[in-house]
Amino acid sequence: MGRWGKRRWEASARGQTRPTGEKKGRKRNLLVDGRGIPLSLVGSGANVGDRDMLPATLDAVAIKRPRPSRKRPQPLCGDAGYRGKPARDAARRRHYQPHIKQRKQESEAKCKHTGYKTRRWVVERSHSWFNRFRKLLVSFEKTEASYTALLSLAAASICWRQTPVYSRISS
Length: 171
Description:
A hairpin with a 5-residue loop joins strand 1 and strand 2. By secondary structure, this protein is of the alpha+beta class. The protein has one domain (25-163). Helices cover 41% and strands 13% of the residues. The chain is built from 7 helices and 4 strands. It starts with 25 loop residues before the first strand and ends with a helix.
């Protein structure tokens, strides 16, 4: 028996093999403020790239933005998934100033400039807050609308926990 006893898979017996390039699952795209509170949240399939979801994420902002000016432009920090001309153009059309850097570039800038602040960890912390909701970790929802509703409920809970009133009550 052993390894010789295993039945071999015959590729021609079942016709074509399924493509391996597709990704199953879901993804969430976040736009957060400086403290990590979600401002915009869009769910999509895992096979959709971040760059393609940037316009929908920027359009789904829940609160009214302050008007950007030349003195106070609104920066938009993103990771390498938002690289490229389509994402940069989408951010500029919505009056954001894109700062899209890879991890290596960000760490080098932090070493060179003493007052440089990295901003990537704010979004990573927000994703960690979402991962604490076990229902969102493994999605068994049949429709995109029910998954989006669960994301919105989790975002509302995160916003409530970050308010100063809640932190005084809980301590």
